[in-house]
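Re: that chain you flagged

S.,

Sorry for the slow reply, it's been a week of failed gels. I finally had a moment to sit down with the sequence you sent. For the record, here it is as I used it:
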Amino acid sequence: MKTLSAIYLNFSQMLLEDRIYEDPDVTFYDLCAALRVSPSDLDEILFEEMGMKGPEILQSFQKLLTL
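Prediction finished late last night. Pasting the structure tokens below so you have them in one place:
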């Protein structure tokens, strides 16, 4: 079982390296399913580290595409 810190790292890689946010149909819950983590658990660590929850982070990245 992966630790939350490893899942946090994988989530970051999906956004920054894999650019998963470029697919407008991808949701935070899709990412959680791919990472095999509870959305509330990932939200907790994301809010702790970044001050934002997962859906907000993904939405922020997706908004960058429309600028």
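What I noticed first: The two ends are 39 Å apart (CA to CA).

Talk soon,
D.
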